[in-house]
Amino acid sequence: MVTSRRSQDAVHYLRLVSLGAAIVGLGYVWFVAFANDAILTRRPCAVEVEPLPAPTSGLFVFGSLASFWIGALIGRWRHLSGLAGELPPKRDWTRFVVHFLLALFFALAVVLLAYEAWAEWDPLARWPITSFVRCVGRNQTLYALGTTCALLFLLGQWLWHPWDTGNAS
Amino acid sequence: MPADVARELATGTRLLVLLVFGILLVLAALDFYWELQRQHSLGHRLQEWSRRYPLYGIAVLALVGALLSHFFWQEFRAP
User: What residues of B are in contact with residue A40 (Cβ under 8 Å)?
Assistant: First the structure.
């Protein structure tokens, strides 16, 4: 384990900058969706829309994979640097908040997937979520690409963080 | 685009973005706050959960991958 002060500082500031950039980017998209829905329908889009053609679709998939990998690498570096490694796990309000948000996120995922299955049953009667995402991909390709990469970057940091057995509790 | 179709498209996309990104933004903000304080990261905290339920962790990643390819992938077609 590399536990030098310089390594800890480097990954600390790298994470602050990258997390800050992801928050600002996602916050901007959230704000635009909240304040200006006209941007979402600037160009016509149909319910049976296909994914973007290659090679743009490849940019989405491989860009997402690369972002996930970079996020995982930074998470791994933080872990190996030993930053906060000496602190005992906290049993305060943050534990409850993380539990609550995770439960909320998974509940939302269940509802959205159930709706997706219901909508795919008869896509001409109601819009599947796939169509919404594909329409945003076609209408706002750069924003959609940036947002997808930012999301996967965050998931890479959060979900792919191998914990060595020495730290297992 | 007909007005009713545009309204449905805008409402659905808006709801999706506000709900999904809203939760992720709060989680990212918490992670930023903990990083500022040099506390354990959100990834570290999630590990407690995914170590307890490793199959759920794998299922979440598999679901994200499947959704991404479903939304965005289009195979090359012969011209």
Answer: 9-10, 13-14
Per residue in A109-142, is it b (16+ CB within 10 Å) or e — as a string?
eeebeeeeeebeeeeeeebbbbbbbbbbbbbbee
The tens digit of pLDDT for each residue in A39-54 reads: 666 777 777 778 888 7
* Chain segment A100-157, per-residue pLDDT in tens: 888 888 888 888 889 888 888 887 788 888 888 888 888 888 888 999 999 999 988 8
The DSSP symbol for A51 reads P
Per-domain residue ranges of chain B: 1-38, 40-79
**Of the candidates A60, A151, A161, which has its C-beta nearest B43's C-beta?**
A161
Reference A163, options A59, A80, A106; nearest CA is A80
Task: Please judge whether A94 and B34 are an interchain contact, meaning their C-beta atoms are less than 8 angstroms apart.
Answer: yes
User: Which residues, at least 6 apart from A148, have a Cβ–Cβ distance to it below 8 Å?
Assistant: A60, A63, A64, A67, B68, B72
- In three state form, how does the secondary structure of A82-119 look? CCCCCCCCCCCHHHHHHHHHHHHHHHHHHHHHHHHHHH
